Each structure stands twice: as structure tokens, then as C-alpha cells.
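thread: overnight batch results

M.L. [08:02]
morning all. the overnight job finished for the chain we discussed friday. pasting input first so we're all looking at the same thing
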Amino acid sequence: MKKLMIATLLVAWSAALGAQDSPLAWASRLEHDYRIVPNVTYLTASNWEAKLDLYVTRTPASPRPTLIYIHGGGWTGGTKEGSATGIPAYLEMGMNVVNVEYRLARIAQAPAAVEDCRCALRWVIQHAKEYGIDIARIVVAGGSAGGHLALTTGMLPASAGLDRQCPGPDNLKVAAIVNWFGISDVNELLDGPNMKAYAVTWLGSAPDRDQIAKRVSPLTYVRTGVPPVLTIHGDADPTVPYTQSVRLHKALTDAGVPNELMTIPGGKHGFDCCNLAERTKAYAKIREFLTRHRVLDALKTPSTGGQLP
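M.L. [08:03]
and the structure it wrote out:
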């Protein structure tokens, strides 16, 4: 498993860097800077072990900003390994990455996935010293259902009551949220013209499913003091309505929360959100956003100190 993870990183990072760096040079830098700790159990629930993978600095005495990465799949599918190609860009920014899995609908329906990701955040904070994690510079990110879970992980107050199944600090705070085409209004996907099978499956047939859907909808928790949010969404997305991101952007702005909506013209969903140029611009925007909000100190590689492309 660990060899497969490393191979995936090598292929993805090689494609990203292209002619800017030789494969041997950046592969050496990857090995020099990071260690991989796979399949660490952070929670046991529903008789199932929730695991995470750590891509972390070899020098934990110098803590780094850290990204908690949450995979998509409509809360019904997807794996942390399947999302590994999204990790190298953040490593290149000098961040640790924690790649998280969570209970899918076949194991436990809503709100289990939300609870799990909040527990993962707690686990990361509790083990920060061991893995060189700067708890003042934790970012949560993900795409689609992972974008939704990144939003809920970063926005939920303790009063929502979704932090009760795992120990840890009550005041969970992240520095920023990166939301790739995530769901912000779950209720909208349960009925009507925007009904989606994945949302219906995740919520199930409970008589109070509308209340549960509202309880796990990021729009429910928009308020002053929410961490800065960057949303990236294609305006032709057939899977998650682009209008949800527009509404989220307006609600956050009205509440005085620093946030941006990066629209991909004609962009669809998942891999089809962006062509190569658009994806490159999206990661440049992420880096700029995180730098502006003081998550990243400077646009430099961690090992060489050189300016990133």
C-alpha cells in the first residue's frame, strides 16, 4: 500500500512539474522532506476503523502548515487512495497533508461522515507535536462531498452536537477552508429538480431526514468568525448545482467572512471541472489565498528556499 501511494505521488508530481524540475530532483526532494505514515486508525465507529494517511515533515521540531484532505464520492463511494493525485500540489506548497477516509452511507448514513471528519480534526490537533503540525495553520480541503465535509469540519460550532463521539478539545478551529465544488445545501438535493440519488442514499428514509439534512448543511452555520473560505466551482456542474456555491459566497460575504468564489466557465464536476490551464490557475489561487490569510509564509519550496513557479 505504501509503495502504491509513493508511486502515485511520483507520477502526479512529475506531471505537475514537467520541465520545471527533473523527476530525479523532485523525487529526491520528496524523499528528503517528507515521510509517509499510512493507514493510521483515528476512530472506530459502527464496528469499522476509520483511517488516515499522513504525508508529514521529517523534521517535526519545525512544525508546518497542514492540510486535512477529504475525498469525494457523494458520501457513498470514493477512497482516500483514489484522491492521492490531489496531494502533491499541497506538498509543493510546503504543507503536510493528512488524507482522511470516513464512514460511507453503506456503513452509516448521515451525519456519520460529518462526525468522522470532525474527529479527524481532533486527532490531528492531539498528535500535532508528533507529526510536526502547526495547529494555528490547519486547512481543510476536499472536492464534492469532500468539499461539503471540509466546510462542515471547518464551520461547525460545538453547539451543533456533532463532536460527541471522540475525545479532544471543544474549541476546534481551522485557519482556512478550500472547497472544490462542495455541497452547501443538502436539503435542496433531496427533492425537486435538483434531487440527487447520492444525497437520498446518504440521508436514507428517516422521518426527520430534512432536519438532519439542515443539521449537516454548511449554509446553516454561516456566521461571523467562520474561517476564510475559497470555493472553486464550474458553472456547468451537473452533479452539484453551481448555484449552491453562489449562495454560499453571498451568505459568507453578507456575514463578513473573508471568502472568494473562483468560477470555472463551462466547468463540470470532479476531474472534468477544469482543463490543465484552469487547474493550474486554481492551485495558484489556492496558494495566493492561503498566503494572504497567513497560512503559508511565502511562496517558496520547503527544501531549497527557491521561488515556486
